[in-house]
Amino acid sequence: MNEHAFRVLEYGQIVDLLAQYATSGLGKGLARQIKPLLAADEIERLIGETTQLKTLLEPRRELPIGGLHDLFPLLDKLAAAADVLVPEEIQRIADTLRAGRLVKAYLEGADETFSHLRGWARDLGAYDEIEAQIERTFNPGGGIKNEASPQLKSLRRQIERSRGAIRGKLQSLLRGAGVAPYLQDTSVRERKGRPTIALKVQHAGRVAGVRRDRSDSGGTVFVEPEAVRGLVDELETAQHAEKAEQLRILRQLTAALAAQEPSLRQSVQVLAHIDLTYAKVRLSREFDMSPPTLNKRGIVRLHQARHPLLLALADRWARGEAEEEMGPVVPIDVRLGDEFNTLIITGPNTGGKTVALKTIGLLALMAQSGMHVPAAAGSEVPIFTQVWADIGDEQSIEQSLSTFSSHLRHIGRILEGADGDSLVLLDELGGGTDPAEGAALAQAVLEHLHEGEVRVAVTTHISQLKTLGYTVEGMENASIEFNVETLEPTHRLLIGTPGSSNALAIARRLGLPESVLSRAQGDSGDETAELVQKLQSARAGALHDQEAAAAARAEAESLRAQHQGKLDELARRERQISARAGAAAQVQRVKERLERLQREDLSRKVIRQALRQLSRELELDSQQKPGPKKKPAQSFKTGDEVYVRSLDRVGVLGAVDGKKKQAVVQLGALPMTVEWDDLEVGNSR
Question: For domain 11-127+260-286, is the CATH number 1.10.1740.10?
Answer without folding.
Answer: no
